[in-house]
Amino acid sequence: MSERLLVLVRHGQSEWNLKNLFTGWRDPDLTALGVEEAKKAGQRLKAEGYQFDLAFTSVLSRAQKTLDLALNELGQTDLPITRDLALNERDYGDLSGLNKDDARAKWGEEQVHVWRRSYDVPPPGGESLKDTVARTLPYYVTQILPKVLQGNRVLVAAHGNSLRALIMVLENHTPESIMKRELATGAPVIYRLNADSTVASKIDLAA
């Protein structure tokens, strides 16, 4: 029986996470804590006996480094890796690089909350989660899902919102409920899929 294993990991804490800045497509490095979170993700997966056939990540270094550190812990440093901007974080546009408190002072608490937590209202010059889904989901359906359904064990290291786009489909979320679905940094979520691409089982190693 083929495994049909899909594991999603949000990157470890970045320098801008720590500074409470909107990050989006900007490219800060991991913090020391983020490095440890990435290593711990690999250690958790190794402890549970997981190995992988291929991996996907974004073109942003915090996700790539998380993947590399996790694979090092797994002893799989030669794993084939595909990098694609379709898996990039949601683009925060004009908010990118701003402190979240400063943004609230400039545009108001309510407006910033709408940009952050509504499904389909984008910040100026940026993407809503709906836009991110429109970018990320087709890539998943055409590039990642077929590999999983062929029986490959696939690891995806990406970002809070690009992974939410995948989780929205995997876990049958509505536009309202997906906004409340939190993803801890460096905490693997493990899915085994049925032959029809639905989820047979799920394990959240953050729980």
TrEMBL record:
Q: Where is the active site?
A: 11, 89
The EC number(s) given in the record are 5.4.2.11
Which residue positions does UniProt flag as site: Transition state stabilizer?
159
Please, which domain of life does this record's source organism belong to? Bacteria
Coiled-coil regions, chain positions: none
Q: In which pathway does it act?
A: Carbohydrate degradation; glycolysis; pyruvate from D-glyceraldehyde 3-phosphate: step 3/5
On whether Protein biosynthesis is a keyword of this UniProt record, the answer is: no
Free-text function comment from the UniProt entry:
Catalyzes the interconversion of 2-phosphoglycerate and 3-phosphoglycerate.
PANTHER family (UniProt xref): PHOSPHOGLYCERATE MUTASE (PTHR11931)
Q: What is this protein called?
A: 2,3-bisphosphoglycerate-dependent phosphoglycerate mutase
User: What is the organism of origin for this protein?
Assistant: Ancylobacter oerskovii
Point out the gene that encodes the protein: gpmA
